[in-house]
Amino acid sequence: MSLIEKLSKPVFIDGAWIRPLIQGGKGVGATNGKTAGAWAAENAGGTIAAIGAAVGYGENGREVPYSYESKTRHGRFEEMLSMSVKGCQLQVETAYKASNGKGRVRINFLKMAGGSMRIMRQVLEKTRLESGGNKIHAVTMGAGLASEEDARICADEGVYLDPIISSVMALKVLLNRTYRNWAGRYQDVIGAVVYEDPWLAGGHNGITSRENPDEPQAPYERVKALRKIMNDNGMHEVAIIIAGGVWYLRDWQDWLDNQDVGPIAFQIGTRDLLTKECPISDEWKDLLFRMKEQDVVLNKFSPTGFYSSAYKNGMMVELKERSNRQVPFTQKLSNSMSAPVEGKGVPANKYSISLEDKEKVDRWIAQGFTIPLPTPDNTLIFVTNEKAREIKSHKTECVGCISTCKLSTWCEDADKKYSTGKTPDPRVHCIRKGLQEAIAGENLDNSLIFSGHNAYKAADDPFYRGENGTALIPTIKQLIERLTTGD
Ligand SMILES: Cc1cc2nc3c(=O)[nH]c(=O)nc-3n(C[C@H](O)[C@H](O)[C@H](O)COP(=O)(O)O)c2cc1C
Description:
The protein is an alpha/beta fold and 487 residues long. The protein folds into 2 domains: 3-279 and 463-485, Aldolase class I (TIM Barrel, Alpha-Beta Barrel), CATH 3.20.20; 307-446, no CATH class. The chain has helices at residues 3-8, 33-41, 73-99, 116-126, 148-157, 168-180, 219-232, 282-290, 314-324, 355-366, 385-396, 431-440, 457-460, 476-485, and strands spanning 11-13, 16-18, 21-23, 45-49, 104-110, 138-142, 160-165, 193-196, 203-205, 240-243, 264-268, 296-299, 307-311, 326-328, 339-340, 352-353, 371-374, 379-383. Helix 2 (33-41) packs parallel to helix 3 (73-99) and helix 4 packs parallel to helix 5 (148-157). Residues 24-27, 30, 49, 51, 108, 110, 142, 164, 196, 200-203, 243-246, 267-271, 450-452, 454 line the site of flavin mononucleotide (FMN).
C-alpha cells in the first residue's frame, strides 16, 4: 500500500471513521469554531480551544478581548467563567455549522485552567442536540490529567473524552482513575488517547520528575509501551493520536499499519497555525517562517508549574535573565548569610545574603535591577522598578485563570480561602496576559508565543512558497490534502 493510500485510510476516533488527521487545540483563541469546523468538514478532527474562547470579533476581524468589571479577584473569576461559557457556545455553534455533519468536533480544556470543570459542564449542557447527542463529539484534556468526575460528565453527556498524556506513568494513573477502578464503567468514554511528545510539542509539556528535560527520548519505544498497556486493558481498538513534532507525515511511514503501535492518527499543532483560517496575526505567521532550529525553548516559566515550549523572544529572554539574577537569602543575619542587601528603596536589614553573593548583587543593583523580590524557594531575584510594577500589576489584575497559580497564588478552592498560601513566584509569567497579547498580535516580542520545536521546518517547506518565492498560506483544506501526500 502506498503512503497516500495508508494516510487516506480512515481510523475510528470519537465514534466515527475519519481521516487520521487531528487539529491540535490551541489557546487562547488560536483554534476556534471556524478552524475546527474546517478540519471536521474534511472528515478530520477539528479542535476548539475552550480557554478564553472568543465571545465575538471586532471590525478588524480580531477577537474582542474579555473585559472585567469586578474589583475583586473572585468577582473577575466568575466573570471569566461566564464569558468562557458564552465564547465556547459561540465557537461550538460555528464549528457545528461549518462541519456540515462531517468529521469530529472536539473541544480542548486545560485541566489546570480555573473553573475548567464548571465551564465544561455548562458548555456540554448548552450544546446538547434536541435529537439527542451533542454538537461536540469529544472533550480533549491536557495540562493535568482528566479525573473520574471529568469522565463521568462526558459519559453522562454522551461525549467522548480524549485524554492527553505524555508518558506511560500518566497513562497508568489515568487508567486507575477513569478506567479500571470503576469496573469498566467509563471504558467506552475514551474516544482516543493523545500521546503528546513532552520534548517536542508546543504549549504545555508533560515532562515528569523522572525524566530529564535536556535528554529527549525518541517517541517510538514510548508509544509502543503505551500500546502494550492499552492492549493489556482491552483498549486494542482505541486509537493513539501522536502529537508533537509532526510535520511531514512521510517521516512517520513506519508507524502506519504497525502492530506495535496499533491504530494511530496524527495531531497537527504548530503547522496548523499556517493556514488562512487560523486567526493568529499575519505578524505571527511571518514569524513562523523566520524561526530557526533551537529558537523554541523548553522552559519552566508557566505559572501552572508545568514545562512549556515557546519561541525565544524578548519575553522568554527576560524571564531567563530574571531567574539568573537569583541568590539564596534569609531574613536574619547569620554566619553564612552575613551580608545585608543594600540599595535605594531596599528596606534596611530585611534580606541577608552570603558574602560570596554580595558582589554580584551590588553589581545588579548598580545596573538598575534595584528591586529584590522573594521567591517561594527562599531566594531573591532582582528586577528593575518598571518590571517589579508590571509583576505586581499582573498579580493584582489576576482573574483566576489557572486553578492554582504560582504567580498570583490564586487557588480555586473556597475551603483554602482562594489562596495557595505560598509566596508569589516572580520567576513565572502571567499566562493570560502573555497569550492574550499573542492573539492580539500587537507586540509579539513581549507575548507568549507557544510553539512546537519543529516550527523551524516552515522556513524550508516548499509548500509555503508561492511564485517569485513569496510566502503562501494555504487553506485548511489544502493543508489536509498536502498532509495526505506525506509532504
Ligand atoms: C500556540 C499553541 C497553543 C497551544 N495551546 C494548547 C492548549 O490550549 N491546550 C492543549 O491541550 N494544547 C495546546 N497546544 C498543543 C497543541 O494542541 C499540540 O498538541 C502541539 O502543538 C503538537 O505539537 P506540534 O506543535 O509540534 O505540532 C498548543 C500549541 C501551540 C503551538
